Amino acid sequence: RFCLPLVLASLPTMATGEEIIPALQDSWGDFWLFRFFVNAAGYASIVVPGFLLIQYFKRRNYLETGRGICFPVIKSCVFGSEVKAAHQDDGSLPLRAEPTESSTARQVFKLLFCAAGLQASYLTWGVLQERVMTRTYGATETDPGEKFKDSQFLVFMNRILAFTVAGLYCALTKQPRHGAPMYKYSFASLSNILSSWCQYEALKYISFPTQVLAKASKVIPVMMMGKLVSRKSYEYWEYLTAALISVGVSMFLLSSAPNRTVSTVTTFSGIVLLAGYIIFDSFTSNWQDALFTYKMSPVQMMFGVNVFSCLFTVGSLLEQGALLESLHFMARHSEFTAHAVLLSVCSACGQLFIFYTINQFGAAVFTIIMTLRQAFAILLSCLIYGHTVTVVGGLGIAVVFMALFLRVYARSRMKKRSKKLPPGETPVQKV
Fold this sequence. Notes:
With about 425 residues, the chain is mostly helical. It is built from 16 helices and no strands.
């Protein structure tokens, strides 16, 4: 009974052969694996009763026998309208709005607006994310300050603002009639929460440039999840670019010298957390793709997922007593409050820019903008936080971004070829 906490606390040291970061290991309860299971237990305390209620209403055939003021709410949450729309060509996004009677100058202005919005939102988000998770607050000449440790609270802050923004947008604009059972959003919500938690938590163990490159390599698990969840097939060039991305990321990771500082060393815990982020995020995108078979807009998807995200995170935080603790931290450090709020604003605005950019210019232009953003994010992190990159690591980064641009080019060629097919013929692969 007493050995288990000691073993859990020693795992990071055993995996890396280095000293444990003192700020992260005040007690064995601060170890990420323990926190992960505590958070998961909090989510389970909401998911399990919800699952039992859904099964109860389905067994009772509530759709035919139910009555009363709760009937519309239960019908929407458990059954929905059960009317599915035809799956759209791009799988998860509305058809791009073709410009009508729009001047070239106006289109260029729109493109610059979208690019600037995406870059500003996500570059600021990345810089703040690293600041919050890797630096102390309240440091003085005599006091080293304290770090903020609860990644789940940051996830909650992001989701509550995204929920508010999406709700206002849906209320103020015309949206398609909603038909999906609300409980189906909970699957994407859980995986989205866990992926975001892993993303924040990983910064305690690895550098931000490493995390950015790992995100680029999520193409591979996304393809694997696509095969498992959506039964998709892929072209040879998709496998080729995925392999190139893997090679580039491996070059960057293996170029890390053993005598690097704690902030830049890639530890075993960091690798596991990144793998968790990639796996959970891959499931999220594929589950959302399946949900889009119902007639809904991306903002409705954003609203539905964030409803459950807020419910799960606030429930777990209250059960642990971590919500009040985090609010007290905010009260002690006004700088952290500003950073956390700005982090949430950038996350919510970035999602809206994503929807608008894809609607106006298509997925290919959006992917190019976001690929450039990843490159700028690595450069900014190195300049602001002093990360160093070796020659081999730089070559690895170049290989990754070359593969990403090759992927965008090949995908655009495939779409152009599919448009030229005679009526009645469809391409073998749906990209």
